[in-house]
Design brief:
The chain is an alpha/beta fold. The chain is built from 13 helices and ten strands. Helices cover 35% and strands 12% of the residues. Strand 4, helix 4 and strand 5 form a beta-alpha-beta unit. The longest helix is centred in the first third of the chain and has 16 residues.
């Protein structure tokens, strides 16, 4: 077992209790500092929430878990390149330092924030967020001076040959490479940037206004719940817990989206143990388990060669509906 998991800090279940059994597996914790918007809705930062965050982060540091703080909004509006944003980020890191929680890594979508960090905090590692959606080495080359670490493109990460090319480039250039393994988003989701931008403006993603116009900012919810295109799930970008060993020689950090999920401990246990018996949709963020009812996607029913078969791999980017996914779906979807 390798120490290569990055866990999103969560509040809805006991964080330390969940992580303690897996100290040999958890490499990082990622989180948004109080007052910092990120690509997920921020919890209400009450004094108790703040105390708990700080306590959990101190525990992580004391147990050799790296701290990765997030400035990964897709949009910073009219302060995107400004003294105001530069000073805000700077003050946040000074505040972290005052609490004894100066980060090991800062993950951002903003090249401007990366530039500020490089100048003002040269010792911190800077990571390009998965939300930058860089798909190949030519993109990494353009970012090489600004970033120390990268997340691989979700749309192509099921292709092990592609992963090998990206991994070789990163290692040859001294860069760490991560992958998010439990995204529940649609592959090539055309709405992702739209609703990620809403977070940057601290807007509520789904409101009565949207309902008035019969509009939902989540295209995945429409596909699954309203249109019943359940087989789209197979064409996602997730990697099953059992299959992650195939990526371990190439990926340095496996990011687990657990910050806003209903059952984060279940996700951590599955990926930390390399095994999960249950409904695979429940490991995803976002997940629409209720949309698949009365059926489930049985994780243990997948073909043994699922990860290397290429089914719903790169072909899912330009799906011709050849029938191979349908055959797997008949096998794994149980009612």
């Amino acid at each position: 077992m390798k120490k290569n998991l990055a866990v999103g800090h969560f509040y809805n279940e006991p964080f330390i209790e969940a992580c303690t059994p897996w100290l040999g597996r958890i490499a990082e914790v990622f989180y948004a500092w109080p007052g910092v918007l990120s690509c997920r809705p921020a919890p209400e930062m009450t004094p108790e929430t703040r105390r708990r965050l700080f306590s959990d982060l101190h525990w992580c540091r004391d147990n050799g878990i790296r701290l990765d703080t997030l400035f990964n909004c897709n949009c910073y509006g009219d302060i995107a390149v400004s003294p105001e944003l530069a000073d805000f980020v700077t003050q946040c890191l000074h505040d972290m330092d005052a609490e004894g929680l100066f980060p090991d890594v800062v993950t951002t979508t903003s090249p401007f924030i990366a530039a500020i960090l490089r100048t003002r905090f040269p010792g911190v590692r800077i990571r390009a967020s998965v939300n930058m959606r860089v798909h190949g080495t030519i993109g990494f080359e353009a970012l090489a001076d600004a970033f120390d670490e990268f997340y691989i493109s979700r749309e192509y990460q099921r292709n092990l040959d592609y992963v090998a090319v990206i991994s070789d480039w990163c290692r040859n250039h001294g860069k760490l490479l991560g992958a998010q393994v439990n995204s529940g988003c649609l592959r090539q989701c055309p709405y992702q940037q739209f609703h990620d931008n809403l977070h940057g403006h601290n807007r509520i993603r789904q409101s009565g206004v949207g309902e008035q116009f019969n509009f939902d900012v989540f295209r995945c919810r429409t596909r699954y719940v309203k249109e019943r295109n359940l087989i789209d799930f197979l064409r996602g970008t997730w990697i099953r817990p059992e299959d992650t060993p195939l990526w371990e020689d190439r990926i340095d950090v496996f990011k687990l989206a657990t910050r806003r999920t209903a059952h984060p401990t279940q996700i951590l246990n599955a990926y930390a143990s390399y095994r999960y018996e249950g409904d695979l949709t429940q490991l995803m963020d976002p997940h629409y388990t209720e949309a698949f009812a009365p059926g489930i996607v049985d994780n243990q029913a997948f073909p043994k060669d699922w990860a290397i078969s290429g089914i719903a791999g790169d072909c899912a980017n330009n799906c011709t509906h050849c029938g191979r996914c349908d055959a797997v779906w008949q096998r794994v979807y149980h009612t």
